[in-house]
């Protein structure tokens, strides 16, 4: 099962959602993301939010189209996206794509990144792939292990950033700038803007949490 979540970030940063139509099992709208989905001719299977980012007319259109809508108070202890992501995780999917989570307010963007660092997500990370996606970037987090990565024609660059603490034993094979059993401390820019030199490459590490970013210019 693949779940695609559309949050309320700037529409001009969204990738082409049509690319994800066929492989998505469940579409989820978050706050203004519900309205965005409807205007991409996608009726979400689930919708969450306080809907403080839509007009009364837009909310009326949402209520008229959706049979079930979960409306939350503006003052709460979780963001709308965290509520939606928790719901999505309960479905035990193989992959989750999160759109509309970048751009706009930087506090929202950083908060959205940190959602992927939650313990329940990291504990099952080797069996679950979660991606934050916009038209220029594909972001994921990895726990220690060995991974195969393939060339993406529209996202040439691959960056590896240590999160929370030093990443140990990182090895990069099949990359323009390879590494062998290297330590990557927090704050290092050593692994920014690497590139694959063949169709596939491998990366591995033994300790820490690694943010992997696939990007285009």
From TrEMBL:
GO molecular function, one term: thiamine diphosphokinase activity
Catalytic EC class: transferase
Top-level taxonomic group: Bacteria
EC number: 2.7.6.2
Entry-linked SUPFAM superfamilies: Thiamin pyrophosphokinase, catalytic domain, Thiamin pyrophosphokinase, substrate-binding domain
Keyword Transferase: yes
Xref: SMART domains: TPK_B1_binding
Listed InterPro entries: Thi_PPkinase (IPR006282), Thiamin_PyroPKinase_B1-bd (IPR007373), TPK (IPR053149), TPK_B1-bd_sf (IPR036371), TPK_catalytic (IPR007371), TPK_catalytic_sf (IPR036759)
Transmembrane segments: none
Signal peptide: none
UniProtKB keywords: ATP-binding, Kinase, Nucleotide-binding, Transferase
Gene3D superfamilies noted in UniProt: Thiamin pyrophosphokinase, catalytic domain
Domain Thiamin pyrophosphokinase thiamin-binding positions: 145-211
Xref: PANTHER family: THIAMINE PYROPHOSPHOKINASE (PTHR41299:SF1)
Name of the featured protein: Thiamine diphosphokinase
Organism from which the protein derives: Peribacillus huizhouensis
